[in-house]
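Appendix B. Extra example for self-study. Work through it before the problem class; the solution is given directly after the inputs so you can check yourself.
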Amino acid sequence: MADTKIADAFVEFERVQKSYDGEVLVVKDLNLSIPKGEFLTMLGPSGSGKSTCLMMLAGFETATHGEIKIDGVSINNIPPHKRGIGMVFQNYALFPHMTIAENLSFPLEVRKIGKSEREAKVKRALDMVEMGDFGGRRPAQLSGGQQQRVALARALVFEPELVLMDEPLGALDKQLREKMQFEITHLAHELGITTVYVTHDQTEALTMSDRVAVFDDGRIQQIAPPDELYENPQNSFVAQFIGENNTLSGKVKSISGDQCVVVLDSGEEIDAMPVNVSEVGQRTTVSIRPERVEFDKSRLHADAHTLKAEVLEFIYMGDIFRTRLRVAGNDDFVIKSRNAPDQTRLKPGEQIEIGWLPEDCRALDA
Amino acid sequence: MSETTHTGPVLAADGTPLKKSLARALRVEKMRALLMIAPLLLFVMFSFIWPIGEMLFRSVDNREVGEVLPKTVAVLKDWDGTSGELPDETVYQAFTADMLVAIDAKQHTKLGRRLNFEKTGISSLFRKSGRKIKKLDLETDGPFKEALIKIDKKWGDVETWKAIQTHSVNYTNGYYLNAIDMQRTPEGVAVQSESKRIMMTLFKRTLWMSLVITGMCVLLGYPVAWILANLPARSANLLMILVLLPFWTSLLVRTSAWKVMLQQQGVINEVLVWLGLVATDDRLVIINNATGTVIAMTHILLPFMILPMYSVMQTIQPTYLRAAKSLGATNWTAFWRVYFPQSIPGIGAGSILVFILSIGYYITPEIVGGAKGVFISNRIAYHISISGNWGLAAALGAILLAAVLVLYWAYDKIVGIDNVKLG
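Solution. Structure tokens for the complete assembly:
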């Protein structure tokens, strides 16, 4: 599942492995190329190896095997302070005994940049994150969101070409997080810096990134732009992890080109698109997004397979309706429908028939 | 809600003013809290505050002379000691009268001892003359000037009377003057005679050596605290036990152990001689002097430095160092600019603790300090238990107390006591 090599790669992981105890590999054979200027997100559950990868790139962990290159140069033996990588930490790590301006000035001072230039750069960086008036304050006097901006400004003030962010928005409330997501992406693209962003929040990954690498069990399960990841998950882990998903399990009955028929364990037949099934008779998990399920027969192909469903629960969520169904013995089958004036509101106990376009139902590994 | 609309005091539900009602509700809690601390409070009052107040009062209390020789002191007021002439017969007569009362009450030797602090020899003069003055009759044996000079010719010495006159005030600054190598004389305040000048040396030595000990503790304790704070919990606990181990051994035992280690035929010297680093007739003198005191006290006070430093360092997150390095700082710069400033409150707390403990230290300097390594507290102990000059001991103690308070105040001004964290 690792990606193919990119010719103009800026950051490269080549066959990187990492083990802490000599027994278990936390990162297993990682190959990854990131072109200049890309916003790449490493997404995965905790313990999937994504943070370890970031720390190896930053230089705080050494790779057990393999090579990490920046701009074609191996950085395995370069200490962190010489890598010139900006980094934003989960808890911001703003130095509490320094003012905001001193915090920003710190990376410039250790680079022996003159005072006047330093002040100009600090001011520019603070203005960039709209914190220009806060230079004289201490980190403890700022709110979480403000500290976040300052941390970002500090990581950018020495104009690194690569910035790493380790779950930087984890401590913020939902609204602020959404605002910051937008600001960070905006800033990263405007400055043209390469960004590696680590998160376990899939919404964050989808909304911010140029590409998302989904980590699990020390491997990249899939690396793709957000829309492709959401719509064409390559295996059931990715399908489950990104967005909401309904799964049904069964056996492949027939395959013809990019369509196949799956017999569910309950005996019913459905249309699906074969993704990583290749033989008739193979066990498979099919996955369907809740918003792609149709219960209005007029919108389906005449010859499309349909399933009987019983409405169990109807939840009004404002912009959408969320309806839980029993389908082929699965009580957690969810469909989402837009709250429009002509939308049908299903009632619990109602018997309906549901179906979907074959390309929306993906037959994945079991 | 209607209470908020009209002016005047806010009323509780039953119509009493809310403030009064609140005070009543809180009074029970206050009383309970007071009752709970009462045993300790009483204990501290009677066993600590009151004796200390009593002791401090002794540093100015000088009623002894006036009480034993009331008539003498009254008539001696008019005598001009600087004239070089002996006081006249009225003084001698008053003195004999006072002495006869004092001898009956056996007070005269006590007074002699008191005046002996100021002028050597007076103690024996009072004791010896006492027996003879007892036989004098106030009605028949006058004039007493000749009689007394016949008993002991020191009664014919102007200096004796000057001593009595100078130290006859009820409240004196004499002890404090003595404590800083000065003295009261009939001519006013003067510098102590050279042979008795020892206090300032001792004060300076106490302060200087306490500073050295504090410095040594910072240097030795900082890395240990750092390792403690950065080790995984299990190893840290083990190491912590090693740090605390000295606390479980008697102070006297530890100090005596240092005596074994440091003496000329001791472990350290023997090892150095065996290694050929030191000639056998040129062994290091590292005990019974300042070096011995510094070594032993640094060891004994080290845990008091490590513990506060450790508790502060524990709160410094390792991401700060990582952040500093990611921003381009070398290991040293990251430590010095980011870690060290955040650990200063711990150093401050440890330093105050160690410094204050060490300027009042007594046992260790007494055992390993010799003549060149004793502190002012050893002098205090000497005056309490050997010379019996409690007034001087009290004055020395008061000065020490004041010095600690001044240092504490200075520290608060410079570093801020809020920055001190003990845990």
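Self-check: Residues 199-419 of chain B form a domain with the MetI-like fold fold (CATH 1.10.3720.10). If your reasoning did not lead you there, revisit section 3.
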